[in-house]
Design goal:
The chain is built from 13 helices and 13 strands. By secondary structure, it is α+β, with helices and mostly antiparallel strands. It is globular, with a radius of gyration of 20 Å.
Length: 335
C-alpha cells in the first residue's frame, strides 16, 4: 500500500475540489479538514469516504460554495441553515459559533439543517475541547440500520459525540450501531474478522464477518435495544431542534444522505468549575480508571488517547498508508 505524505494528500484533495469550482480559501480549509481526520487515525472518513463525498458533489447533492447561515436566534440557541454545503465546513463554522455563544451564556447550541455528512463528528467537539470547552454533538442519517427486533432498515446510525478538555482531551464518537459503516469498511479492506459480533448474516445468525454485513447491511444497534432506542430519540431531537429533515424524510423524501440534521453544543468550563479543581478532578477520574486490573485479553484505555500515537506514527513513516484501491479511486478524481 502506498504511503502518501500529508502535504501530497492535502494538495490532491485541494486540486480535486478546485477542479469542481470550489473557492480557493474554502477548498484549502476543506482539504485540510479531511486530512486532519486521516492524520489523527480516522482513515474511514478522512480518506475512504472522500470519493463518496465527491460523487455527491458531482450529483449536485453537495453545494461546494454554499455556507451556513443563522436563520433563528434564541439567546444561547441558534438555528442555522447550511444550504447543502460541505458538512466538514458546516461543522467547523458552527462549532466556532457554538463556542462564541458559550463564552457569552455559559452554554451555546447550534442546530443545523440542510447540512451534509460531516465525516468524523468528533472533529468538532475535539476542536471545542482543545479550546477548554466540553462539547456534545449529534447527526442523523438515512435509514441504514434495523430497529431492535426488526429486519429492514428503519433507523439511522445517528452518532452521539462528546469531548471534554484535558491533557489530552477525552473524546467519544459513538455511532448507534455496534460498528459504524466506516469502521466496517476498514475491516473489509483489511479482510479481518470483527472483534465482536456486528450484525446478522443472511440466515439470521449473529456474525463477525464484515464482508457479509457490508453486503446485507443487517448491522446491530449498539447495546441491542438501547442503541435502537437512542437512535430513535436522537432523530426526534435533531428534527425538533433544527427544524430539518428526519431519518424517514431523508430516506423517503430526499432519497439519499444529504440535507441531514445536526447539532453542536459547547459548554464553557471556565464558568462551571475553577481551573485548578478541574485539572485535579479530571486527573483523578483518569487515574482511577487506568488503575483497573486488566482483563486476561484486554488493556484499559481512555477514549481519544490514541490520537497522538497516530500523529507520531505518520510523522515517522513520512505519511499515511492508504489502501491501493482507495488511492486509485482518489487519483481517478483528478482526471
Amino acid at each position: 500500500m502506498p504511503i502518501i505524505s500529508v502535504a501530497k494528500l492535502t494538495d490532491t484533495y485541494k486540486t480535486i475540489l478546485l477542479s469542481r469550482g470550489m473557492e480557493q480559501d474554502n477548498a484549502t480549509r476543506l482539504a485540510e479538514g479531511f486530512v486532519e481526520m486521516a492524520n489523527e487515525g480516522i482513515y474511514s472518513h478522512g480518506i475512504n469516504r472522500f470519493p463518496v463525498f465527491i460523487s455527491q458533489v458531482d450529483k449536485g447533492q453537495i453545494k461546494l460554495n454554499e455556507t451556513p447561515e443563522c436563520v433563528n436566534s434564541m439567546g444561547a440557541l441558534e438555528q442555522w441553515d447550511c444550504h447543502f454545503g460541505p458538512g466538514v465546513l458546516n461543522g467547523l463554522i458552527c462549532s466556532d459559533r457554538a463556542m462564541e455563544l458559550a463564552r457569552q451564556y455559559g452554554i451555546g447550541m447550534v442546530g443545523m439543517r440542510n447540512s451534509n455528512h460531516w465525516m468524523r463528528g468528533g472533529s468538532y467537539v475535539l476542536r471545542m475541547a482543545r479550546e477548554g470547552f466540553a462539547g456534545i454533538a449529534a447527526t442523523n442519517s438515512t435509514a441504514v440500520m434495523p430497529a431492535w427486533g426488526g429486519k429492514d432498515h428503519r433507523l439511522g446510525t445517528n452518532p452521539l459525540i462528546m469531548a471534554i478538555a484535558g491533557d489530552p482531551p477525552v473524546l467519544v464518537d459513538c455511532s448507534m450501531s455496534q460498528f459504524s459503516y466506516g469502521q466496517l469498511q476498514n475491516y473489509v479492506l483489511a479482510d479481518k474478522e470483527l472483534p465482536v459480533v456486528g450484525g446478522y448474516d443472511n440466515n439470521g445468525e449473529l456474525t463477525k464477518d464484515p464482508h457479509v454485513l457490508w453486503e446485507n447491511k443487517r448491522i446491530l444497534p449498539m447495546g441491542f435495544w438501547k442503541g435502537s432506542s437512542m437512535s430513535l430519540v436522537l432523530d426526534m431531537m435533531l428534527t425538533a431542534i433544527t427544524g430539518g429533515h428526519s431519518v424517514p424524510a431523508l430516506t423517503e423524501d430526499m432519497g439519499g444522505e444529504f440535507g441531514v440534521s445536526q447539532f453542536l453544543i459547547a459548554i464553557d468550563l471556565s464558568k462551571t468549575i475553577e481551573a485548578s479543581k478541574f485539572s485535579e478532578e479530571m486527573k483523578r477520574i483518569r487515574d482511577y480508571v487506568l488503575a483497573s486490573e486488566p482483563a486476561e485479553t484486554g488493556t484499559v484505555q481512555v477514549a481519544g488517547s490514541s490520537i497522538e500515537k497516530f500523529l507520531e506514527k505518520h510523522e515517522r513513516a513520512g505519511g499515511i498508508e492508504i489502501h491501493d484501491s482507495i488511492w486509485q479511486q482518489i487519483e481517478s478524481l483528478l482526471n
